[in-house]
Amino acid sequence: MTVESTTARTPRGASTERGSAAGDGAPAKKAPASKAPGKKTAVAKSAGPAGKKAAGPAAKKSAGPAAKKTAPKTAAKKTAAKKAPARTSAAGSPRPTAHAEAPASAAEGGQLIQLLTPEGERISDPAYDAYVDAITPEELRGLYRDMLLTRRFDAEATALQRQGELGLWASLLGQEAAQIGSGRALRDDDYVFPTYREHGVAWCRGVDPANLLGMFRGVNHGGWDPNSNNFHLYTIVIGSQTLHATGYAMGVAKDGADSAVIAYFGDGASSQGDVAEAFTFSAVYNAPVVFFCQNNQWAISEPTEKQTRVPLYQRARGFGFPGVRVDGNDVLACLAVTRAALEHARNGEGPMLVEAFTYRMGAHTTSDDPTKYRADEEREAWEAKDPLLRLRSYLLAEGFADESFFGELETESEALGKRVREVVRSMPEPDRLAIFENVYADGHALVDEERAQFRAYQASFADAPASGEGE
Ligand SMILES: Cc1ncc(C[n+]2csc(CCOP(=O)(O)OP(=O)(O)O)c2C)c(N)n1
Ligand SMILES: [Mg+2]
Question: What phi and psi, each to the nearest 5 degrees, are found at residue 249?
Answer without folding.
Answer: -65, -35
